[in-house]
Design brief:
By secondary structure, this protein is of the alpha/beta class. The chain has 10 helices and 9 strands. The structure holds adenosine-5-diphosphoribose (APR). Adenosine-5-diphosphoribose binds next to helix 2 and helix 10.
Length: 252
């Protein structure tokens, strides 16, 4: 990453008040959270994760999908926020109108101190009824369930299998979260996109809402993404390195 790009990003950042951030799996990469597209190990190597994260897969084999998510939960549980997460939390502190929208189902932004994070793709540690029998989402406290040998455990209200509260491929996003995300990108004065391939819609379309109004777009991603061609400034370095430097510059 050249210093000129960093300096140019700082000029824009200093002038911004209402920053809309979109984060993706790359933001958690340096925390060791594997993406679906990363190679899977051991027991799970023979499965294609993108095939497991669908309602069709769950219907066909709920136990398999439940156990795969139990494995992913274990991986995420061991992860800790990295310097990029902390830098974004500090940015929210310095610019209180900043809105953080994430596609990540971990809660590492919150663990780093970010507040009011908009989760477009749900949260891996929450559990809900597959039938959403009491409205979407029908969240269930797993710790309060009666002991059972059944996997996945049944919903205490209707008996349908329980599942993680994440958005699978072929599913709609939570409408309220999506609306708040649209509002943020439709009214921001800077869009900051961190660690997403920009391939999964509608999240990938959010930066464009800022771009089409002439609002600057800064991208942090060590590799070119589907959003890079829209970016005014591309900081081609890992989030855990570049975001703390931006914050340092903002504070100076
Ligand atoms: N810092 C910033 N970006 C990084 C880093 C890093 N250290 N390491 C990798 N990246 C970038 C990659 O270059 C890639 O562009 O992060 C991006 C990760 O892309 P994806 O794995 O496609 O993740 P994401 O865009 O969040 O996926 C969107 O698809 O898998 C589904 O529902 C899931 O929310 C997810 C959605």
């Amino acid at each position: 990453m050249d210093d000129y790009a960093l300096k140019a990003a700082l000029v824009i950042l200093r002038a911004a008040q209402r920053i809309a951030i979109l984060s993706g799996a790359g933001a958690s990469k340096e925390s060791g959270v594997p993406t679906f597209r990363d190679a899977m190990d051991g027991l799970w190597a023979k499965y294609d994760p993108t095939q497991l994260a669908t309602p069709q897969a769950f219907r066909a084999n709920p136990r398999l999908v439940w156990e795969w998510y139990a494995y992913r939960r274990d991986l995420v549980r061991q992860a800790r926020p990295n310097p990029g997460h902390y830098a974004l939390a500090q940015l929210q502190h310095l610019r209180p109108q900043t809105v953080l929208v994430t596609q990540n189902v971990d809660e590492l932004h919150e663990q780093a101190g970010s507040h009011q994070v908009i989760h477009l793709h749900g949260r891996i540690f929450q559990t809900k009824c597959f039938a959403d029998c009491r409205g979407s989402p029908t969240l269930v406290d797993e710790d309060a369930l009666p002991p059972t040998e059944v996997v996945p455990p049944p919903c205490p209200h209707c008996g349908a299998p329980l599942r993680p509260n994440v958005v699978w491929f072929n599913e709609a996003l939570p409408i309220e979260a999506l609306q708040r995300a649209y509002d943020a990108f439709a009214t921001c004065d800077l869009a900051l996109v961190v660690g997403t391939s920009g391939l999964v819609h509608p999240a990938a379309g959010l930066p464009y809402l800022a771009k089409q109004r002439g609002v600057p777009l800064i991208e942090v991603n060590p590799h070119e993404s589907a959003i890079t061609h829209q970016s005014d400034i591309w900081l081609d370095a890992p989030a855990g390195e570049v975001l703390p430097r931006l914050l340092e510059g903002l504070r100076a």
